Amino acid sequence: MKSKVAGYVLIIGSLYYIIAEAISATFFNSSLMSTYLFHTISELGIPNANSPLFWLMNSAFILIGLTLIFGYFYKFRDFIIKNKIVCSVLALVTAFGVIIVGLIHGGNPLTSGYHTLGAVMAILGGNVLLVLISRSMNNFGKYQKATLTLGIFGLIAFWILFFNMESIYMPVFERLSVYTLVIWSFITGVYLIK
Predict the structure, then answer these.
(1) For 8-69, what is the HEC assignment?
(2) Per DSSP, which regions of 48-163 are E strands?
(3) Is the pTM here over 0.90, yes or no?
(4) Is 80 in a helix, a strand, or coil?
(5) Using an 8 Å Cβ cutoff, are 118 and 163 in contact?
(6) pLDDT tens for the 194 residues of the chain, in order
(7) 57-79 burial, b if ≥16 CB within 10 A, otherwise e?
(8) Is 82 strand, coil or helix?
């Protein structure tokens, strides 16, 4: 029963995030394609005229952080055989990073450093967490291989993002490095339910 509860919570969190971002992007002050290609996720959460649904995007950051904490510590942690403490710490770092991003928006010189710190905690911490989880479970089956693939892909995207901050396509690499954790949350929810 605990597995199913944790699974549904993770699925709801991941789906809410994708839908909330899509709706926020639809109402952003740019075309939908342009928003996804040339505007960062963080821009969707800045309270200004460009993003009238900033509160929706920020709620998605906060919710997926909370669902990660709940899903991981309520049940998923039981599947971790090795590196239990490190995985738990990384799960908290990742979740709190996403929550910080939702609570402290970018675009403000006084708070942008905290926002950036939260983003690094979420993206780098999250993808390192995926790689570690894949190697810390009892076996290395399809789920673990998918988790490892997502983690490595996310780290590569983050690496490209880090060295191309001035590129007009930087938001694409940002999304690629973020979506790995969102996808993982969904497939982990399915894994826990089954």
Answers:
(1) HHHHHHHHHHHHHHHHHHHCCCCCHHHHHHHCCHHHHCCCCCCCCCHHHHHHHHHHHHHHHH
(2) none
(3) yes
(4) strand
(5) no
(6) 899 999 999 999 999 999 999 999 999 999 999 999 999 999 999 999 899 999 999 999 999 999 999 999 999 999 999 999 999 999 999 999 999 999 998 888 888 899 999 999 999 999 999 999 999 999 889 999 999 999 999 999 999 999 998 899 999 999 999 999 999 999 999 999 98
(7) bbbbbbbbbbbbbbbbebbbeeb
(8) coil
Q: Pull the structure tokens for residue 94.
A: 């990742």
Closest by CA position to 122, among listed 179, 173, 37, 40? 179
> How many whole angstroms separate alpha carbon 15 and alpha carbon 92?
21
Q: Which residue has the tokens 């880090």?
A: 162
CB 81 within 8 A of CB 137: yes
